[in-house]
Design goal:
By secondary structure, this protein is of the alpha/beta class. It has two domains: 9-140, Rossmann fold (3-Layer(aba) Sandwich), CATH 3.40.50.2300; 143-220, Orthogonal Bundle (Arc Repressor Mutant, subunit A). Helices cover 53% and strands 11% of the residues. It is built from ten helices and five strands, in the order E-H-E-H-E-H-E-H-E-H-H-H-H-H-H. A five-stranded parallel sheet has the order 2-1-3-4-5, with helices on both faces. Helix 1 links the parallel strand 1 and strand 2.
């Protein structure tokens, strides 16, 4: 890094809004002050005029697939650490990515594994220090103890805050205004909340959330 005050720049190439939000949130847990640039294609990545410190890319983008994506980002950003975060289950592509100097993690990995992969990437770039205990502490702080019955994935604290405001009757725009984030970010979180709670609509999500939060409070008391 050029100076202590310079923000680390992280480029995320991902066309799924929920995944890019999740990755951005993970980065936020590991770095208190960073500049995250999100693009949804290789073409958009070519328009980035600044050199990122790290690159996180999906293999399957609208204008590039598999080997093409691996080669494109290796050529565009040869000197910075790169991570492929992909749902494509292909051992040969994973090996090709690693031969090209990428770290590789599957999107279906646990939150802990995803966070550790991103931490390893940031360590390789010299952006964060190798502090496993601190990383573990971050994981524990990031997740709440509010979890739907039968689910292994608790809500994050940000998702809890969104659900509390949603349960009060606030719209996505009103929640966004109070939390100083964009409505699209709120909607992305709500979609992920539906998945974690096993809910089909907002009313059902609120009902499940209220029960889960009540249970968590009883366990804590």
């Amino acid at each position: 890094m050029g100076s202590e005050t310079e923000k680390p720049r992280i480029l995320i190439a991902e066309d799924h809004p929920m995944i890019s939000i999740m990755l951005s949130d993970m980065i936020g847990q590991l770095i208190s002050n960073s500049e995250v640039i999100v693009v949804n294609s290789v073409e958009k990545a070519t328009e980035v005029r600044i050199q990122p410190d790290v690159v996180i890319a999906d293999l399957d983008l609208p204008d590039s697939k598999g080997s093409g994506t691996i080669n494109a980002f290796a050529q565009m950003f040869p000197d910075c650490p790169r991570l492929i975060c992909s749902g494509v289950l292909d051992t040969q592509l994973a090996e090709q990515a690693e031969r090209a100097g990428y770290l590789f993690v599957n999107k279906a990995a646990s939150y802990h594994e995803l966070l550790q992969s991103i931490q390893s990437l940031l360590i390789a770039a010299g952006v964060v220090d190798a502090l496993p205990q601190a990383a573990e502490k971050t994981i524990n702080e990031f997740h709440s103890n509010i979890c739907a019955p039968g689910s292994e994935k608790p809500l994050t604290w940000k998702q809890v805050e969104i659900m509390r405001k949603t349960a009060e009757g606030l719209s996505a725009k009103e929640v966004a205004r109070e939390m100083d984030i964009s409505p699209d970010t709120v909607r992305g979180h709500i979609k992920e909340i539906f998945l974690r709670l096993g809910a089909k609509n907002k009313g059902q999500a609120v009902e499940i959330f209220i029960r889960a939060e009540r249970k968590a409070r009883l366990l804590d008391s």
